[in-house]
Amino acid sequence: MTLPRRSANPSLPTDPLLPVDAPDFNLAVTLASGQVFHWGPQGAGYFGLIGDVPAYIEQHGDRLLTNADPALVSHYFALDHPLPEIYRSFPADPAMAAALDFCRGMRIIRQPAWECLATFITSSMKQVAHIAQISHTLRTRYGVAAGNTGAFAYPAPARLAALREQDLRACALGYRSANLLKTARMITSGEIDLEAIPSLPDDQARATLCRLAGVGEKVANCVLLFAYERVRAFPIDVWIERVLRQYYFTGTRKVTAGKLRDFCREYFGAYGGYAQQYLFHHARSARRARAGKTLRLT
Fold it and tell me: N or C, which end of the chain has less CB nearby within 10 Å?
């Protein structure tokens, strides 16, 4: 799986690159795993935004080099997560072992809440390449420029709330336009406060997110995992459901959504979100490899 090459890549940084300790980390796998959609190869590394901060990052073994604040980079890529402990928590079964071997070094990125929420609302029934293109279009049309890098921050809720639905449809959102617009307006009006969610228990936080337009349990769990660091959250999409049925419910004809949810909560435990992301990326990559295709973000 490869990441997008931008049509207008920013120039390589001229500032000195600063070191960041990054043990047990694989930058390329992490960026390619379907968590974020706006990073792309640049020079010997990758370029993207951390919130509204442009960042160029290279990996050299257990060290990153970056032109951004090392503390910001370390936090964004969750380099403080105890990955060896997380791995020990994974169940000892063939599917999980294969996913761990394939994805070793992947970390759950700490994303800005609104950017994460909006991106996954627009991801419904879309391929990764389409999600990336929608993100790029929204950013360039309605986001704030990140200096002279050629990149744009994800547009704020108030910026999108002021638009018309047809403006968003022109960004290839289709029926997702109404959901994104309504959610942006709910947040802008204060009806839903994203900053209050960290203080809520998991079930209440999930229920609050599900009040937003275009947010069901799967998107809510993605936001809990990728934006609010609820590493137990286990999003179940078509890829994960296929894995669960193939490896964990073999021969079982009827498995309800509730049974899958309860099984994942108990079987994968406190770091279920990590297990899910490893299974997800491995399954999707393996399927494309078998089909002789390479997934490219554009």
Answer: C
Classify residue 67: in a domain, yes or no: yes
Chosen domain end from 211, 226, 241: 226
Q: Are 136 and 122 in contact (CB under 8 A)?
A: no
d(C-alpha 103, C-alpha 177), whole Å = 34
Residue 12 lies in domain:
1-80
How far apart CA 129 and CA 43 sit, in angstroms, is 21
CB count within 10 Å of CB 116 equals 24
Domain count, the chain: 3
Instruction: Give the model confidence (pLDDT) of 47-60 as tens digits.
Output: 999 999 999 999 99
Geometric angle at alpha carbon 48, from 26 and 292, rounded to 5°:
55
- Same-domain check for residues 215 and 237: no
Is residue 2 assigned to a domain?
A: yes
Nearest CA among 276, 248, 222, 268 for reference residue 106: 276
- Spatial CA neighbour of 111 closest among 215, 5, 39, 196: 39
Kindly state whether residue 23 falls inside one of the protein's structural domains.
Answer: yes
Per-residue pLDDT tens over the stretch 228-280: 999 999 999 988 999 999 999 988 778 898 999 999 999 999 999 999 999 99
Read off the pTM. Answer: 0.91
